[in-house]
Amino acid sequence: MIDHTPRRVVVVTGAGTGIGRATARAFSSARAHVIAVGRRTAPLTETATDHPLITPLAVDVTAADAPDRVVRAALDRHGRLDVLVNNAGIAGGGDLADLDETAARRQLETNLLAPVRLAHAAVPALTDAQGVIVNVTTAVGQRAWPGSALYAAGKTALDSLTRSWAVELAPRGVRVVAVAPGAIDTPIGTHQGLDPQQRDAVRAWQLAHTPLGRIGDPEEVAWAILRLCEPAAAFVTGVVLPVDGGAVVA
Question: Fewer C-beta neighbours within 10 Å, C or N terminus of the chain?
Answer without folding.
Answer: N
